[in-house]
Amino acid sequence: MNMHLTRRDMLRAAGSLAAASMWPAGATADEAAENDDDSFYFFQLADTQFFWGDDPVGKWRSAIAQAKRLRPDFVVVCGDLINRNGDAAKVDLEEDERRTRAYLDGAAQLDASIPLRNVAGNHDVCNVPTPETLAWYEKRFGPTWYAFTHKTAQFVVLESDLIKNPQGAPEAAERQLDWLKKTLATKMPDTVRQRIVFMHHPLCLKSLDEGEGYFLLPKERRAELAELFRRSGVKTVFSGHYHGNAVVRDGELEMVTTNGLAKTLRGDPLGFRIVRVSAEGVEHKFYAHEEVPEELTV
Fold this sequence. Notes:
By secondary structure, the protein is an alpha/beta fold. It contains nine helices and eleven strands.
């Protein structure tokens, strides 16, 4: 796929090459420098969705300020960066550019040493993505699917609209699935102990065999993905879209859905999730905006 990155995007990408701090739970900056623990933290956000909700600009800037203060190794936003119309025939290009500028302006306040990882959602590429909506997203926010390795973990980012509704861009959907199978079939280096997936749509909210619904991936594709994840050592899947919090365990696979940053549909507090990755596994906790801790902890 064609991809054009803005100068701001390139600065963030360059930041991903910089060394990041290692912060064990409750440690100060000085203690972290002396600690050889391989554990690390990241922030997981979902549905910034400019300009829908309760002051999304202020909530986004607040989350960025917390990241600058607490210094996680990176920040990931699991889709719906903006509130683009879900119907590709009804998008407002001028308004979408205004939403995009507001999101990127806030993102530019993040230190270059703390990479921002974007994940596409249905209000970024539309409910039924097309080659045009995918290209529009990539030009502004980066690739729609990709993988990266950080310290002891490999992270896989998926464009879940291509899984839920592939009919608008079947070739792209097939390329993503082929890429995913090849990526997960590749043996992880000995130093990598965790595989973690980020995508917009939850695999499920109650159980893998629950029924169909707007907020879920189709049951058949859900089962196929879950089996592929199990075979390849994926233990945790983070998502958004639901505008509420949900955690489901199925054997060793944990599926974590995080509430929107500025809009809830379930009565859950607005905020984001802090995640710790260590040799023992993945720990996480959702924090309301007003309850973010003084130190990195879960």
